Amino acid sequence: MQISFSTGLSGLNAASTAINVIGNDLANLNTTGYKASELGFADLMSQHLGGSAANGDLGLGVGQATVNRVYTQGAIQATGGSTNGAIQGNGFFMTKDSQGTTFYTRDGSFTVSAAGQLQNTAGHSVQGWSAGANGVLDTSGPTGNLSVPIGATVGGTPTSTMSMSLNLNATPSGTSTPASFSTPVQAVDSLGAIHTLTAKFTNTAVNTWTYSVTIPTAEVSTAGAATVGTGTLVFNASGQLSSPAATAVPSLEVKGLVNGATDMAIAWNLYDPATAASNITQFTQASAVSQIVQNGFPAGNISSVSLQDGGLLMASCSNGQQLTVGKLAVATVNNPTSLHAVGGNELVATALTGTPVVGQSGTGSAGTVLAGSLEKSTVDIAAAFTSLLTFQRSYQANSRAITTDDQILQETIQLIHA
């Protein structure tokens, strides 16, 4: 009789554990990156009642239920969050707390802290590789906390090439003063300062113009350095530039800047490098500039940061430039069911966990980081409710078995008293 009580009690315990697990899954129906659990049951050692081994065993109930997370892929939901990320495939994001404990998570709800650290919702620092001052990444080295220098000053890029798409009016001026046209051109020096050059074109003969490019005298140490380039442009009867030749690239020499910046030699592309078509024409239309292109950028400040597909962390600067500041690491674990959940959508390795392999998005067995997205919970509400009803019935059946055992025991006691 005692065996039947303990057998029914084991069934109650197992059903109660199962209901708790399913209830936890349902509670995390909307938890980002949550993985639904799988229950496992095993019968307890049987008691042999005698006779042959095949028909003499009496079961002693069900053992403690085992609970494992099932690491299937959750649906990817676009959020538009600039620092949100989801992993499509295997792997985990890595974070660390202030004590250096490493955590693993599928929740890519990252934000930038007041101190400029990329953190998850638990306040732990996201791990990856930080870029150098020139934006170059070294992913062969160890990972560390990803820092975002919001507000930091980024040096400018000095101008080395420039081009002007413009037309010079082919109609004679009809006066004793030669026709001329001027346009400003900006150039950036090695210190990120902007200098406004002035290009002046003067019609000296039919189809012939001279040019002179100058810089304000106050910006150079000697007045003679104010003229940074001169030359002659000759056009053919079709209004196309014929001299200098397409292979000739005039250089504008900016020297002796008073701010101490490095001397500049700016290559002036009179022709399109791809098509060899002249950028400067001479047609019977008003002289005008349609486009000026130069490759320099002034110094600026980092104003925002965003995550890109593949895990790249890009900073946007006030000068319109984008700078690589880091890259997220992805860790793959061969036996992820051995990881222990510690709350906050994070897990830690246990003694049974294999050595995680840390790598980049999309390399080896690591999944791909998708920017502006989050992974939804894998809990199937329909399947969870079905299982919940099943274990409710199981609990009721085991409680009925215990009630029946109690009634039989009472009848037996009555026999003794009778």
Helices, strands, pairings?
Blueprint: H1 2-27, E1 37-40, E2 47-48, E3 57-58, E4 66-69, E5 76-78, E6 85-88, E7 92-96, E8 102-105, E9 111-112, E10 118-119, E11 125-130, E12 144-145, E13 153-154, E14 161-169, E15 180-188, E16 194-205, E17 208-214, E18 227-235, E19 241-243, E20 251-254, E21 264-268, E22 280-283, E23 288-294, E24 300-307, E25 312-317, E26 322-328, E27 330-332, E28 340-343, E29 346-348, E30 357-359, E31 368-371, E32 373-375, H2 381-417
Parallel strand pairs: 14-21, 14-22
Antiparallel strand pairs: 1-4, 2-3, 5-32, 6-31, 7-8, 7-11, 7-27, 9-10, 11-12, 11-26, 13-24, 14-23, 15-16, 16-17, 17-18, 18-19, 20-21, 24-25, 25-26, 27-30, 28-29
Helix pairs in contact: 1-2
Description of the molecule:
It contains two helices and 32 strands. With 418 residues, the protein is of the alpha+beta class. It has three domains: 110 residues, no CATH class; 144 residues, no CATH class; 134 residues, Sandwich (Tick-borne Encephalitis virus Glycoprotein, domain 1). Strands 7, 8, 11, 12, 13, 24, 25, 26, 27 and 30 form a ten-stranded antiparallel sheet that branches. Strand 16 and strand 17 form a beta hairpin. Helix 1 packs antiparallel against helix 2. The longest helix has 37 residues. It starts with a helix and ends with a helix.
